[in-house]
Structures are given as structure tokens and as C-alpha cells.
Amino acid sequence: MAFITGFGGTITFSGVASVQVRSFTLNVERASFDATTLADYREKRLPGRIRRSGTLTLLRQDGATDDTLRTHLFPNDITAATGASATLTLKYVDQGSKSYDEWGSGTNPMSIHITSASINDNGTDLALWELSWEEQ
Fold it and tell me: Residue 20 has what pLDDT?
């Protein structure tokens, strides 16, 4: 599948150049206005708060990018845990002429946390990373 110019986005992990996003989903939720329990505060779900999350599909990159992704998911020391960061920029171009910048576009990318990752490699096609994320 060829990339469509201007469609998709990029994800940048700390210490790694930007990686092209093959496809994405973006979920936007608004917390209930009547949610007032202590658990809502603990989960950052205050009344009226917007929560952004989604999924990304990336083509597998080199070993350094794979290692950075693993460090982001499973930091092996406190320095790696506090230093791991990822930013996301998403963009959609309709019919090649109308551009819709999603959250995190341009000079203000979203700071995100990868919540899960899986890789699909059947040995004949390009390997794909499937990532789930949420905004920090």
C-alpha cells in the first residue's frame, strides 16, 4: 500500500528520528459531568475532561527504533523511565486538497504514552507495529 501524500502522521520517540505512521485511529472522549468520585481524580477523569487515545500502525524500522520502543514500554531503570517520551502529529488530507490537522498538528505535537504494542511479521511482507496510545 502506498502512502498518500499528507495523510497519516509521524511519531517521534526520544532519541529517534520521526517514524511515518501508516494508519491511525483517534478517539476523543469527554468525561461525564456527574463523575465526582475520588477514583475520577486518580484516573485524571475530572468532570468535563477530554481524553484522547487511539491506535497507530507503523512499518517496522531499524533495530535502534525497535529498541527505543521497547525502552519506552519497559524501562529498565529510573533514568530510562523518566527520560522516555513520545510525541505524535496526525494529519488527514481529503481528496488531496482539503487538509484537516488533527490534535497535535504542526508545531504543537501531542505528548503521548504507548500503552501496548505488538508486532506482526510473517517473514514475507513488511513487518508492522500495532501501537495503542493515550495522551499524557
Answer: 76
